[in-house]
Amino acid sequence: MIESSQWHKYQKEIPDGPFFFVRSCIRQTFSMGAEAMLQKILKEYLGLKVYEDPRHTCCTGIAYHTDIVPIETSMTVIARQFSLMNEMGYEHLLVSCITSFGMYNEILALWKEYPEKLEEARKNLYKATGRTFEVPKSVIHTSDIIYKYRNELAAKMKYKLVDCNTGEPLRMADHVGCHYAKIFPMKGVGGAEFPQVLSGLAEPWGARWIDYTERRHCCGFGFRHYLLQENRGYSITHSKIKFESLAPHNPDLIVTNCPGCNMFLDRWQYTIAEMEGRTYDKFGHGIPVVSYEELAALLLGENPWDIGLQMHQVQLETLMDKIGIPYDESKKYLGKDGEYIGKPDTPEILLV
Amino acid sequence: MKQFGYTTLTKKSVNIYETDTSLWKELSAANPEFKGCLSCGACTAACPINNSGTTLNNRRTIIELNRGMAITSDAANCQMCNRCSLVCPKGLNTRRIFFELIRKRTEEKQ
Amino acid sequence: MKELNDAVIIGGGIAGLQCANILARRGRKVVVVERADTIGGHVAQWHTCYPFGLTGKELVDKLTTHLELAEIITNAEVDNIERERDKYAVTVNGKRHDTRTVLIATGYNLFDAHIKEELGYGVYPRVITSVELENAWNNNTMPFDTSDTDAPRFAIVHCVGSRDLKCNVTHCSKVCCMAGIKAAKELKQHYPTCQVTNYYMDLRMFDTSYEELYHNAQTEFNVQFVRGRISEISLGNKGRLKLKSEDTLLGIPIVDRVHGVVLMIGMQPPATIKVDNEDLAKNQNGFLLQSDPINANLTEHPGIFIAGACKGPKTITETLADAKAVALAIDEYVTK
Q1: Chain A contact for C235, CB < 8 A?
Q2: Residue span of the structural domain in which C273 resides
């Protein structure tokens, strides 16, 4: 843990709810199960009131950042989310995605700075849907909640981030999404330069947190970098820079709080292995990448295949073996109702 | 190896903590005056060879040697006219840097 | 009738002491008011002062030869300064002091290096400030642990809290260029096998003997100078620190890995002083404004003088000269 007086000023107030929950497009697509698990943790393990409205939509983040939609569209869509929240009687917005978290905060800051833009959004929303809205009392990211209740969760956990053979704490690296605190440092636990939102989980959950040189570097999920094939070299290079900086520390896992970072740090390990014939761990399995809620669910004793861990590129069996979490290999590729959903191809270099 | 239509890019930055500065140590021990270079660039501005489109650059060469980086000037281009030393505010024998590099290369060849 | 002082001097740093010493020697009744529990200000904690090589303590001692004639109040808070016709009433720790003149010599505040978050001060113990380096030399301790290497590398980062609009600082703190090179030489003397690199934006060697110091550091001490601002300090392997910058003279981004970093922290304006409940006028950098182009120590209030680094960053030499000038100005004012 970082010991310093200065970073403590970046301690945001995290309310206890009740929360109006908005989903992440990327997390739903690539980490099926993660968001369901997240809601289970919040509702069942922590007893928080979390409501998810089936009518809510994408925040437009990806389209906005790639210049596909103008900001007026984003403002109207976000205004509609707020309107739904008002209608259901909630005041605290709980965001699952870092891009969305950045979007909501950016739009709110814009409205605060330019009240005429808020009026414009009100007008546009009313014209389009007949709805009105008020801004939320707070915008909270789900990793903030997990951070807030890290000790409560630790008490309920069946497993610790400890090597079951040696008793040594596992080496945990973190990567915090850029739009979490780099846009508005006061909106993140620990600020932009030395975020604590994930590193703070290490100690109560039994791991040893490792700092590394490129901790603050982009994961490679820069929208303009990966969307076009011509630019994708930049994206994968960013990930490579991070892995090269991480490799000497021999991390047992990387924890992320951004759906995009989670996906890119995971999938690019396969691509780099195919391109350059190398992996960044000792045995060729790659470095496991998990999000905070996947990790929490795993340590709480949830079934790894219900969390959706089989959807990861870098397989998590090595990590589960280290911790001593039992899993049933035969059920790995069974769907919700027990039907076989098919096994993906095996890559040549990255061992699965 | 698979083709993806894009590749990883090579890092441009130089790790100056692991460069080889032995050549600088050797040259600056024999010519301590080089160490006092202020990087003003008067030498390069005066150089007729630099001005005729080559990469020959006294100022840059001294820094590259000092940092242990790859030398971008081709010392063989230097005509030894000594205009660089004439304008040096610190009175360094800036021409000598190329003279030394050429001598070094000749020694290595033998 | 209440006792009337000739001057109340707010600030017991070298400017205040120099002025008090001169006035006391000339038989003037002087009160020195110091916020801290000892006099000497920032200079008292410097290990060596360039160019004369005195320690800060020795220098302060030279300024206190006649101070037994003056009243010195330490741990003092100035509550109020009020004008009463041709004199002032200064309330210090609740007690009133009547005086003909007041000298503001409150010096400067040090820049809080925590604010430059990307430099990791307060996070990585191997990142220290120039003040902590002086303190280490004062205490005869080595500032950095280099037990794991024969050839340590150190970096000195210039302009931390100077010329930085993001920190609301537009001014140059003036002395850090010289002090940074002095620090590099001292590191080299204490760690003979080390390599020191100074990361600067400009080297402003404005005073006599400063350019010589620079030349000497280059040629005798092999100190490396890189023109480029550090963008980020992060943790490297084995507890070492990685510094990113661009070598702007080559146009190449570089990464350095070092055992210790010294941040040359700049000078910030001192706390506000109020006269008749109004702030004294400030210049564009937040330091106190001199109201007259010729007489460098005057303010808009007759009888209130300013001297030293409260007017803007100053070297020790400049501060002492300024304080001597203000002593003359006060003496003349009181005689009149």
Answers
A1: yes
A2: 4-108+269-335
Inter-chain touch A229–B8, beta carbons under 8 Å: no
Q: Do C115 and C260 have their domain in common?
A: yes
Predicted local confidence at residue B109, as pLDDT: 85
DSSP sequence for B36-71? G-----HHHHH-TTGGGT----HHHHHHHHHHTPPP
Please state the domain extents for chain A: 14-142, 159-331
**What average pLDDT is seen over chain C?**
94
Of C265, C282, C299, at which residue does a domain stop? Answer: C265
Over the stretch A45-89, which tens digit does the pLDDT of each residue have? 999 999 999 999 999 999 999 889 999 999 999 999 999 999 999
Q: Does A248 touch chain B (CB under 8 A)?
A: no
- Select from B36, B63, B66 the Cβ nearest to the Cβ of C215: B36
Where do we find the tokens 């081709």? B74
Tokens of B9: 């890019």
- Put simply, whether B95 touches C (Cβ < 8 Å) is no
Domain A159-331 has CATH 2.40.50.200: no
CB contact under 8 A, B5 and A236: no
Domain count, chain C: 2
Question: What CATH number has the domain bearing residue C159?
Answer: 3.50.50.60
Cβ-contact C264, C72 below 8 angstroms: no
C298 pLDDT band, cuts 50/70/90, is very high
- Over residues C152-164, the mean pLDDT reads 96
Taking a C-beta distance cutoff of 8 angstroms, is the pair A130, A166 a contact? no
| Cβ contacts of C207 within 8 Å, gap of 6 or more | C178, C315, C317
Task: Measure the N-to-C terminal CA separation of chain A; round to a whole number of Å.
Answer: 32
pLDDT tens-digit map of C82-124: 999 889 999 999 999 999 999 999 999 999 999 898 999 988 9
Separation in Å, CA of A237 to nearest CA in chain B:
5
**Is the pLDDT at A338 greater than 90, yes or no?**
no
CATH architecture of A14-142: Up-down Bundle (1.20)
**Residues on chain B touching A236 (C-beta within 8 angstroms):** 6-8
Chains meeting A at 3+ CB pairs closer than 8 A?
A: B, C
The chain A residue lying nearest B13, using CA atoms, is A241
Please tell me which of the candidates C123, C235, C236 has its beta carbon nearest to residue A4.
Answer: C123
pLDDT digits (tens, 9 = 90+) for A228-275: 888 999 999 999 999 999 999 999 999 999 999 999 999 999 999 999
- Please report residues of C whose CB lies closer than 8 A to that of B37: 218
Asked whether C192 and C185 are in contact (CB, 8 A), the reply is: no
